[in-house]
Amino acid sequence: MKKDNKRKRRARLIDIGFLSVIGILSVIAVLLVMDTFSSSTSASPNKITHKKPDVPKAEVVVRSTDSNFPGIKIVTETTDDTTKPFTIQYPQSEFEEFNREITDYIEKVKTDYQAVETGSANATHNQLSIFFDTLHHSSGNYSLVLHTTTSTSNKDSITEIRTFHIDPITGIELTMADVVDRNAEKLKRVAKVVRDHIYQDPALQETLIADSVWQPTEPTWMNYRNFALTDDTLILYYGTGVITKRQAGPIQVEVPLEKVNSLLSKKFQVQTAVAGPEKKVALTFDDGPDPHFTKKVLETLQKYNVKATFFMLGNRVEEYPNIAKMVAEAGHEIGNHSWNHPPLTGLTDEELHDEVRATEDIILQATGQRATVFRPPYGAVNQQVRESSKLPVVLWNVDTLDWQHLDPEKLLENIEADVKSDSIVLMHDIHKSTAEGLDAVLEFLQSQGYSFVTVSEMENY
């Protein structure tokens, strides 16, 4: 009986052990199945992953060739990138600094172009194109004019012009400041010539908004950064939308060099030959002498080795005899302009005699020489006035109106407008503006081929 009970307990233990083993194996199997299922479903059921193929990097081909201009090579860059294609040409020289400026500009344009995101469907609209022109000036300077056009699917086509300058022999890089002797006053006058040229050119009027010309032509060095120089023309480039009616890209304003010739450094001036008879001009100064401004006038005349004629008032010679003497000692001609500057045609014979004779006497006393010519105030002359002095009566045919506007720039403008060969120019050496503007006047007249004479040396005065 006991043996049967033992067998029964052993059998139950075996059954329990067997069932435990089976249970453990089942759990392990379930876990394995779940892990496999989890691995197979961890990715999105709609996503199929593939190994990315290797995409070859776009190749850029660079080649260099000689240009038709000594010292300048043409570098050409192209790429087989179908999404961001470009064709670029730019100049290079023997000078590292100039080359670096060019390549820095090129790299910036390329970087900006590559940074614009475009859809692949519109890739055919993408294009970067750069080419350049070379303009030569007889001074040796090259103006390299780069034309850059960028087109992308996300933006309209944009064209920009940038200019660079170099002497290929010396490596010197030219700026507008060099062209006008780093003179800000000359730049102001260049700006005025440019504006006048724009307003007067019908072809430019078709593309420019006149009211918008003022700001981009303001006389700042930056506004005149983009220019080119030839033996005949000063070319200025203005950007898209700055002074244009249509967004058609930059425009260029071509100013004949002769219009700004007197403002340029001698190295860049047009060398004009005087054809036919010599062109003469006589400069005259009334109402002096003056202790300040006559001195300044004398200094400027000496700078250009110019002789002029001074029509002096007797009362001012009496007050400033030393200044009158300075004029005479500098070799200038002295004329009688009356004592007090009245209209002489309204005087009695005695009053007229006093005005003329007293002035002749004081001029002789102060300078040691006699007046050689006579100019009645206001140009008021009749036979009585002519007989009051035995001296030749000299009037004028170019009136600068310097007493009226008191503006150094208008002094030159009025002379430029009216001067011609055998002109007698009326100015006054008692005004600061005249003394300050005289240098520009002499520079202009000299650049136009005029020689300077006193009125006595002028024929048919």
Major β-sheet profile: 7 strands, parallel
Order of helices and strands: HEEEHEEEHHHEEEHEHEHHEHEHEHHEHE
CATH class of the largest domain: Alpha Beta
Oligomer state of the chains in this structure: single chain
What's the count of strands?
Answer: 16
Count the helices. How many?
14
Q: Helix amount, in percent?
A: 25-40%
Strand content: 15-25%
Poorly predicted ranges (pLDDT <50, ≥5 residues)?
36-50, 240-247
What radius of gyration results from the CA coordinates?
Answer: 44 Å
Number of domains: 3
CATH topology of the largest domain: TIM Barrel
CATH architecture of the largest domain: Alpha-Beta Barrel
Q: Which of globular, elongated, flat, extended, rod-shaped describes the shape? A: elongated
SS class: alpha/beta
Measured distance between first and last alpha carbons = 170 Å
Provide tags for this entry.
461 residues; Heat Shock Protein 90; Actin, Chain A, domain 4; seven-stranded parallel sheet; six-stranded mixed sheet; 37% helix; elongated
